[in-house]
Amino acid sequence: MAALIVIGLMTYGMSGRIFQAPFLSTHPGFKLKAVAERSKKIMAASYPDIISYDSVEELLNDAEIELIVVNTPGYTHFNLAMQALKAGKHVLIEKPAVATVAQVEALYRLAHKKGLKVMVYQNRRWDSDFLAVKQVIESGRLGKLVEISIRFDRYNPKLSPKKFKEDAALPPNGLVYDLGPHLIDQVISLFGRPLSFHKVMANHRENSDVIDYFNFHLAYPNQLNVYLTSSLLVGQPMPSFIVHGTLGSFIKDRVDVQEPQLDKGMLPTDPAYGQEPEGCEGRLVLIDADGKKQKETVPPLKGDYTHLFEAVYQSIRNNALYPISEEHIAWQVELLEA
């Protein structure tokens, strides 16, 4: 049996508590050993065996640690990931990976030189709602795809108490780098790099210095148009996924339950994990040869971010291709940076 991959977390904030530690502690191929906690030592309350280092330097000096999870604020990602690579560690970076294409290229260049892996955490490829959309698209039941609209909206007019999130001088920041990576990655996972794109950004919240609205128009072959939109000032959310084809349409709300489940302490090993509640099914409308509408609901699929961590394991231990490829991240950051 292959040796366990020993892992260190850069921090234990929301990302560490919700999106990282529950998977790293339950995956049979990982050993979650240590965390960097500069002030408050809180992780041991949930993970008694964890080693809490006082600094990133101490964490990186632990010779047993093979993989570092860079889950710190976005503006620190590039420098900390570079430090981890220079220390001989594989790296898993929370989104947004970095601010610029030049930084992406520098990370991958150093990783190749040292024979290490740089992987980016794009968990929403495994959201239950997106998996349903992907299944319908790949089934071909909609015919030739005409238009796709994906939204990720919130209503939050107040500025974040985390000052770095509202500081335009600390890129990557703003909504385009917060929710943009999710939407762009989902589309790239389906269709690859767009032929062209147009980007609109705006700032509507009072006293805000960072972007709180964006829209991308991505053009793909066969005249497929994809629209990605996000806003912090949507009081009544619209359907998050709308797909139109020559034979019909599919509509799905954003209903993935993994984040709230993990936030309440549910582990990904729980049978109820990732299961959508009843009544959230996608709506499929097909037009028959006589022009009549045929309506049906599409059964939900199980969301499960465990697949991302299994991909990390297979990439490191068996040199398998990590599904969020270097090209995918380079294309994503190109759009975000534009």
Tags for this model:
338 residues, alpha/beta, Rossmann fold, 2 domains, eight-stranded mixed beta sheet
Describe the structure.
The chain has 338 residues and is α/β, with parallel strands linked by helices. The protein folds into 2 domains: 5-122 and 307-325, Rossmann fold; 124-303, Dihydrodipicolinate Reductase, domain 2 (2-Layer Sandwich), CATH 3.30.360. A hairpin with a 2-residue loop joins strand 11 (241-245) and strand 12 (248-252). Helix 4 packs antiparallel against helix 10 and helix 7 crosses helix 10 (326-337). The chain has helices spanning 14-24, 56-60, 77-86, 101-114, 128-139, 174-178, 180-191, 258-263, 306-318, 326-337, and strands spanning 5-9, 30-36, 51-53, 67-70, 90-94, 118-121, 145-151, 196-202, 213-220, 224-231, 241-245, 248-252, 282-287, 293-298. The longest helix has 14 residues, at 101-114. The mean pLDDT is 96.
Rounded radius of gyration (Å):
21 Å
Strand content: 15-25%
- Per DSSP, the total helix count is 10
Spatial gap, N to C terminus:
46 Å
Give the CATH architecture of the largest domain: 2-Layer Sandwich
CATH homologous superfamily (4th level) name of the largest domain = Dihydrodipicolinate Reductase, domain 2
Tally of individual domains: 2
Helix content: 25-40%
Give helix and strand order, one letter per element, not per position: EHEEHEHEHEHEHHEEEEEHEEHH
Q: In CATH's first tier, which class of the largest domain applies?
A: Alpha Beta
**What's the CATH topology name of the largest domain?**
Dihydrodipicolinate Reductase, domain 2
Cross-sheet strand order for the largest sheet: 8-9-10-7-11-12-13-14
Q: Could you say which overall geometry the principal axes of the C-alpha atoms support?
A: globular
Main sheet characteristics: 8 strands, mixed
Detail the poorly predicted runs: none
